[in-house]
Amino acid sequence: MIVGKAVRLRPIERDDLPRFVSWLGDPEVCASIALALGPGLAQEERWFEGVLAQPALEQPLAVDVLHEDGSWRHVGSAGTHGIDWRNRATEIGLVIGDNAVWGRGVGTEAVDLLLRHAFGDLNLHRVWLRVFADNARARRVYEKLGFRHEGTFREAEYRSGRYRGVEVYGMLESEWRARNPQVGARSARPVRKTARPRRG
Predict the structure, then answer these.
(1) DSSP 8-state class, residue 198
(2) What element of type H or E holds 24?
(3) pLDDT in tens, 72-82
(4) Closest Cα to residue 131, out of 103, 109, 151?
(5) How far apart are the first and last CA of the chain?
(6) Residue 12 and residue 54: Cα distance in Å, rounded?
(7) Are 59 and 79 in contact (CB under 8 A)?
(8) Which domains occur in the chain, in start order?
(9) How far is residue 165's CA from residue 134's CA, in Å, rounded to a whole number?
(10) How many CB atoms lie within 10 A of CB 108?
């Protein structure tokens, strides 16, 4: 578990799946991710079984937000996609499905925690992501955190009768450490994939 000030990242549990189904059935949520049709519960359960089969260090994580009463509420997910251990690089993704917390900095802190995990724990060298060109809110989050715009896939996504561009953003370990000098330097030796996935 990775805990911040008001957000934490934790392993996804089977009990979380109905919330994912609800969120991914919301057209407003799907508009910001590469998903044209939300899954049903049976599909989400098959997805979860696939998650459990992945190495533990590569499994996506649930995003929880802290409430004033001290309880945590599940609001989304974040994670790495296909870690390239030889080149120490990964793509990351984020979905905040609970629109009640949109605009409250939850996504910013979740990505910040994910970067801490990628660079500080997994000892990766490069993190990158894709975001739709018309998703100005998400792009502001990534730029605020220090991501650099690296390129554009023009008219790469067809949705609702039109094509949208996809922007690519990236961050290097050295850039992240320059913004986070309190985190000690690590050796260049990558983390080995020795952890086994948890079974539910």
Answers:
(1) P
(2) helix 17-24
(3) 999 999 999 88
(4) 151
(5) 17
(6) 13
(7) yes
(8) 2-179 (3.40.630.30)
(9) 8
(10) 16
What pLDDT, on the 0 to 100 scale, is given for residue 34? 67
What is the DSSP-derived secondary structure letter of residue 89? E
pLDDT in tens, 63-113: 999 998 889 999 999 999 889 999 999 999 999 988 888 889 999 999 999
Contacts with 110 (C-beta within 8 Å, 6 or more apart), sequence order: 7, 9, 63, 76, 78, 94, 96
Write out the two tokens for 186: 């690590």
Instruction: Measure the CA angle with vertex 75, ends 108 and 52; round to 5°.
Output: 100
Distance CA 109, CA 9 (A): 10
Both tokens assigned to 121: 């724990």
3-class state of residue 185 by DSSP = coil
Write the pLDDT tens digit of every residue in 129-180. 999 999 998 999 999 999 999 999 999 998 878 899 999 999 999 999 999 8
Edge-to-edge strands, sheet with 72-84: 2-3, 7-11, 61-66, 72-84, 89-96, 126-132, 162-172, 148-159
Smallest Cα–Cα separation from 62: which of 120, 99, 113, 131? Answer: 113
- What's the pTM? 0.84
Measured in residues, the chain has a length of: 200
For residue 159, the model assigns a pLDDT of 82
Tell me the pLDDT of the chain averaged across its residues.
87
Which residue matches tokens 């100005």? Answer: 136
Kindly state the DSSP code that residue 121 receives in the 8-state scheme.
Answer: I
**Other beta carbons less than 10 A from residue 133's beta carbon:** 16
